[in-house]
Specification:
heterodimer; A: 292 residues; Purple Acid Phosphatase, chain A, domain 2; 6-stranded mixed β-sheet; 6 helices; B: 188 residues; 3-stranded antiparallel β-sheet
C-alpha cells in the first residue's frame, strides 16, 4: 500500500469510526449533562436466564455513553431460591461489568424475595426491609417493602417524608399502585394506604415492578408512576386497555435510564435489543404552598 | 384491631337491652384485651428466646457473601429449634385466641375492598407444609399481606411477621425463615 493510499484508507476508517460513534451517541435522548444525577431502573430481574443477561448487556453498553452511578431494583431479585449460586447466577454475573465498574444497586423486596436479602451488601439495603437514601442533594429515594406494609412501616414512611427537605421525592417498591397489567394490575389496597401520603408530602415519582412489562402511566393526581417489571421476565400482550397508559411496551424486555437535571426528569427506556421504546421529560411537580 | 373491637361492641349492643350495655360492653372489651395481651406475651417470650440464642455464629450481619446469609439464617434456625424443641401448634396462637383472630380478619375481607384483599392473597399459592419450627420452603413465595389485614392484627415484634399460606395464618420468623405457629383456615 502506498503512503497516499494508506492515508486515504486511514481517513476512511476514521470516518467510519466517527460515523458509528455519532450513531451510538444519537441513540441517547437524555441530555447527559455533567452535573446531573444519572441512574438506571430495572425490575423483576432474578431469573438468571438469557433475557436477564441480554438486558444486563444493554445496561452495560448504555453506560459506556451515559455514566449512571447506580441502579434501583423493583424487587423479585432472585426467583426460586437464595443460595450463594442463586445470587451469583441471578445478580452478580448478569450485572458483573456494572458491579466491576463500581455501579451501586439499591434493591426493594418483591414477593419472590425473602427478608434475608436486606443483609446482602450488594443490594445496599443497610440491613433494612425499607429504607431511604439521598444520592445527591435535593433528591431522596424511599425504598418500601410492599409485601408487608404494616402500620410500623407506614408510620416510618410518613416520618421520613415529613422530615425530608429534598425537592425530588421518589418512592420505589414492588407492587404497582397503577398498572394496566391483566395478570396483576393496580394494587388498590396498597394505593389506599400509600397514595394519601404521597400526595400529602409531594412525592414526585413512583417506580414499581411486579407486572412483567414496561408501562408509563399517565400522571395520577400529579404523580408520575412507572411499571418497570420486564427486565428479565415478560408477560407478552398483558397491558390491557385501562386508560392509564401513556406508553406501554410488553413485547420485549427493558430497562429505564433516568437523568435528573434541576427540576427535570429525563427518561429513556431501552429494550433488550438496544432499541429505544420510550423517552421524554417530566417536570418536578411543584410543592404545595402549605402542607396540611 | 380497632375494627375488631368496634364490631365486638356493635354485636354487644345488638344482643342486649340498653340497660345492660354499660355493663356488657366493657366486659367484652376487657376479655378481648386480655386475650390480646396474653398473645402478645407469648410472642414476646418467643422473641426473647430468639434474642437469647441469637449470638455468636447466629448473629446476622450484612455481608457481601450470600453463602454467609444462608449460614447465618440456618444457624439461627437450628438454635431456635433446639431451644424450643417441644413447641407445638397453638403454643402462641393459643386455642382460645384463634376465634378472635378469625374475627379480626373478617372485616378486611368484606365487600369490594375485601374482594381486593382476597385477590392479593390469592395471587400466590405457596405449597407449604405447616409445621411448627419448620423452615419456610426457600422456593415458595411469601404471600403479600394486604395493609388492611395487617392493621387489624395485634402488633408483633420486628422480624416476626404474619403471613398467609392460602387460607392459613402463619406467624413467620423473618430472620430464621421459620414457621413459629399457625392457625388453620383463618379465613373462609
Amino acid at each position: 500500500m502506498t503512503s497516499n493510499r494508506r492515508l486515504h484508507f486511514s481517513i476512511a476508517a476514521l470516518g467510519l469510526v466517527l460515523a458509528s460513534s455519532v450513531l451510538a451517541v444519537d441513540q441517547i435522548t437524555l441530555p447527559n449533562k455533567p452535573d446531573s444525577l444519572k441512574f438506571g431502573v430495572i425490575g423483576d430481574t432474578g431469573t438468571g436466564d438469557q433475557h436477564e443477561y441480554a438486558v444486563g448487556k444493554q445496561l452495560a453498553e448504555f453506560r459506556n455513553q451515559f455514566k449512571y452511578e447506580f441502579v434501583v431494583m423493583m424487587g423479585d431479585n432472585t426467583y426460586g431460591g437464595e443460595s450463594a449460586k442463586d445470587f451469583q447466577n441471578r445478580f452478580e454475573l448478569p450485572y458483573k461489568p456494572l458491579l466491576d465498574a463500581g455501579v451501586k444497586f439499591y434493591a426493594a423486596l418483591g414477593n419472590h424475595d425473602t427478608p434475608a436479602q436486606r443483609n446482602y451488601k450488594l443490594f445496599n439495603m443497610g440491613g433494612k426491609q425499607y429504607y431511604t437514601f439521598r444520592p445527591k442533594l435535593g433528591v431522596r429515594f424511599f425504598a418500601l417493602d410492599s409485601n408487608y406494609m404494616n402500620p410500623e412501616q407506614l408510620t416510618w414512611l410518613e416520618n421520613e417524608l415529613k422530615q425530608s427537605g429534598s425537592d425530588w421525592k421518589i418512592a420505589f417498591f414492588h407492587h404497582p399502585l397503577y398498572s394496566s397489567g391483566g395478570r396483576h394490575g393496580s394494587d388498590m389496597a396498597l394505593r389506599d394506604q400509600l397514595e394519601p401520603l404521597f400526595l400529602k408530602y409531594s412525592v414526585d415519582v413512583v417506580l414499581s415492578g411486579h407486572d412483567h412489562f414496561y408501562e408509563r402511566i399517565k400522571p395520577q393526581k400529579g404523580i408520575q408512576y412507572w411499571v418497570v417489571g420486564g427486565s428479565a421476565k415478560l408477560r407478552s400482550g398483558d397491558i390491557g386497555s385501562t386508560g392509564l397508559t401513556a406508553k406501554g411496551f410488553d413485547t420485549g424486555y427493558s430497562f429505564m435510564a433516568v437523568e435528573i437535571a434541576g427540576d427535570e426528569w429525563h427518561f429513556q427506556t431501552i429494550s433488550d435489543q438496544g432499541k429505544t421504546v420510550d423517552s421524554g421529560v417530566i417536570k418536578r411537580r411543584a410543592a404545595p404552598a402549605t402542607v396540611k | 384491631m380497632r375494627l375488631g373491637i368496634i364490631s365486638a361492641i356493635v354485636v354487644g349492643i345488638g344482643l342486649v337491652g340498653p340497660a345492660q350495655i354499660v355493663a356488657q360492653v366493657p366486659a367484652a372489651f376487657d376479655a378481648e384485651k386480655k386475650q390480646i395481651a396474653d398473645f402478645e406475651a407469648r410472642v414476646k417470650a418467643y422473641d426473647d428466646l430468639r434474642n437469647k440464642v441469637d449470638g455468636g455464629a447466629a448473629h446476622q450481619t450484612q455481608t457481601r457473601h450470600p453463602e454467609k446469609l444462608a449460614a447465618q439464617r440456618d444457624t439461627l434456625r437450628a438454635n431456635i429449634q433446639k431451644a424450643r424443641a417441644d413447641a407445638k401448634p397453638g403454643d402462641i396462637f393459643a386455642p382460645d385466641i384463634q376465634p378472635l383472630f378469625k374475627r379480626l380478619l373478617k372485616p378486611a375481607l368484606k365487600g369490594s375492598d375485601g374482594a381486593e384483599n382476597k385477590n392479593t392473597l390469592k395471587e400466590e399459592k405457596p405449597l407449604v407444609e405447616l409445621k411448627v419450627n419448620a423452615p419456610y420452603p426457600e422456593k415458595e413465595p411469601l404471600a403479600t399481606m394486604p395493609p388492611d389485614i395487617l392493621k387489624q392484627l395485634p402488633i408483633v415484634p420486628k422480624n416476626i411477621e404474619y403471613r398467609m399460606v392460602r387460607k392459613h395464618l402463619v406467624l413467620y420468623d423473618a430472620r430464621a425463615s421459620m414457621i413459629v405457629d399457625f392457625i388453620y383456615n383463618a379465613i373462609p
